[in-house]
């Protein structure tokens, strides 16, 4: 599969994004957060393009050739490759927030179990945890960090609409869970996005442990 770039995108820029995505994917895969070719990752390339993982590849073995260019309508650019089925959730972030430059979506066991457990409430309310401060814009453990849990569907426009409705209601959004599925989070660069993902994985794990201990 070969990638042809538009004249306005230097090869070095695309390769930098592809390498950063592949590196993050390998590390997240090593932690067991991307089982069975699941999960997808992207980075903004410019105001109207993003680099995203090609559908169906094992995330522990990604190289440059496993990343493709799309426009912000989710259409492939300069390649016959097929982007991830959930591409619309990535492009939604880039269209909504010009300052956001990376999106990570994983399916860890903790994320999956938490999404089922909190689905009935439609939200996980994190409060009192020091690590909430790892999320950009959260300055104290005393605030409440709300992570919505949206119903799963294979019909992406439905999920896109649920995310938009949450934002249009004026509620802050740093990440969301999809029921029985996994988590989405984003940031201004890959490092910030990784920090968000790791903090949320930790916080969701703590919430699950608390539930277990209180029930026993
Ligand atoms: Zn997924």
Description:
The chain has helices at residues 11-30, 87-96, 109-117, 156-168, 190-215, and strands at residues 40-46, 49-53, 67-71, 102-106, 123-127, 144-150, 175-178, 182-187. Strand 1 (40-46) and strand 2 form a beta hairpin. It starts with 10 loop residues before the first helix and ends with a helix. It is built from five helices and eight strands; from the N terminus they run H-E-E-E-H-E-H-E-E-H-E-E-H. The mean pLDDT is 95. By secondary structure, it is of the alpha+beta class. The structure holds zinc ion (ZN). Zinc ion (ZN) binds at residues 38, 86, 105, 107, 181-182.
The whole-angstrom Rg is: 17 Å
**Helicity level, as a percent range?**
25-40%
Derived structural class:
alpha+beta
Bound chemical compounds: zinc ion
Percent range for β-strand residues: 15-25%
The count of strands amounts to 8
Per-chain topology:
Layout: H1 11-30, E1 40-46, E2 49-53, E3 67-71, H2 87-96, E4 102-106, H3 109-117, E5 123-127, E6 144-150, H4 156-168, E7 175-178, E8 182-187, H5 190-215
The structure holds zinc ion.
């Amino acid at each position: 599969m070969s990638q042809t770039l538009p004249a306005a995108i230097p090869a070095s820029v695309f390769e930098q994004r592809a390498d950063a995505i592949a590196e993050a994917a390998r590390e997240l895969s090593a932690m067991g957060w991307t089982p069975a070719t699941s999960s997808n990752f992207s980075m903004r390339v410019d105001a109207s393009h993003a680099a995203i993982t090609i559908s169906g590849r094992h995330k522990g073995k990604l190289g440059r050739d496993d990343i493709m260019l799309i426009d912000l309508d989710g259409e492939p650019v300069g390649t016959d490759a097929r982007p991830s089925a959930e591409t619309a959730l990535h492009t939604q972030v880039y269209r909504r927030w010009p300052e956001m430059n990376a999106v990570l979506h994983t399916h860890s066991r903790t994320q999956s179990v938490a999404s089922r457990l909190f689905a009935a409430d439609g939200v996980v309310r994190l409060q009192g945890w020091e690590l909430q401060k790892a999320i950009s814009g959260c300055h104290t453990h005393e605030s409440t960090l709300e992570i919505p849990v949206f119903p799963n569907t294979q019909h992406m426009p439905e999920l896109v609409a649920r995310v938009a409705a949450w934002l249009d209601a004026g509620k802050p959004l740093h990440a969301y869970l999809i029921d029985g599925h996994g988590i989405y989070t984003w940031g201004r660069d890959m490092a910030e996005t990784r920090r968000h993902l790791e903090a949320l994985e930790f916080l969701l794990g703590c919430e699950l442990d608390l539930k277990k201990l209180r029930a026993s």
